[in-house]
Design a protein that fits this description.
Length: 217
């Protein structure tokens, strides 16, 4: 009877403790978990399961490693915010599966993404033909982002600078050059390193500085 009460009390305690931990980590849904988040979540689940089974061990033997994991996750998340290389190393980057209506089979093989998976995602979004897709990106969380040709026009925001890095492929699509972009930055007394996000929409350039000030050109 005592063992049952101990197991129940530990279960209730860890229910609220893990809920608090995930609130601190700021998680919303499983589909949004990155690699680090998923690893931390699995380890927390394993530690809690072991602690509930081993009622003879003190509960602090579980709280301490969980606290260490949460601190590590928060620390890496803070570092990743300041470094794109760190973000790419831990989280990866999106893969182009379809470009201008053509399937990138080499990338599909590399990502172990089958044609059945692709067609299923297209059907889910009501798209009948691969040729009607301008771009399809396999995101780092496994979801497929699809951009149809009909919305890929001048009114669609196209990223030119992301976290201080110029997106040369986008510049080619809008038939602009790096010199053109750098000229506009100089007019606003900025360098590319000062820019958090810059996008082109409706023949206008929008620059979001790291200080979160929005400038339109």
């Amino acid at each position: 009877m005592k063992e049952i009460i101990a197991v129940l009390s530990r279960t209730i305690f860890f229910y609220f403790f893990v809920m608090l931990v995930f609130r601190i980590m700021g998680k919303r849904e499983v589909g949004q978990l990155g690699v680090i988040d998923l690893i931390v979540s699995i380890l927390i689940a394993e530690l809690v399961a072991i602690s509930i089974e081993n009622t003879q061990d003190t509960i602090f033997l579980t709280i301490v490693p969980i606290a260490a994991l949460v601190f590590l996750e928060l620390f890496l998340a803070r570092v990743a915010l300041k470094s794109k290389r760190i973000r790419t190393f831990f989280g990866g980057k999106p893969s182009v599966i379809i470009e201008k209506g053509k399937v990138n089979y080499k990338e599909m093989v590399r990502q172990r993404y089958t044609i059945d998976d692709l067609l299923f995602e297209l059907r889910q979004k009501g798209i009948k033909s691969i040729e009607s897709v301008e771009y399809a990106l396999l995101e780092t969380n496994g979801k497929l982002s699809i951009f149809e040709r009909k919305i890929f026009d001048k009114n669609y925001p196209m990223p030119l600078i992301v976290d201080g890095e110029i997106q040369t492929s986008t510049l080619k699509k809008i038939k602009k050059t790096t010199l053109w972009l750098e000229h506009i930055l100089r007019k606003n007394m900025l360098t590319k390193e000062d820019v958090f996000y810059c996008f082109y929409k409706g023949y206008k350039l929008f620059i979001i500085k790291r200080s979160d000030l929005l400038i339109s050109e």
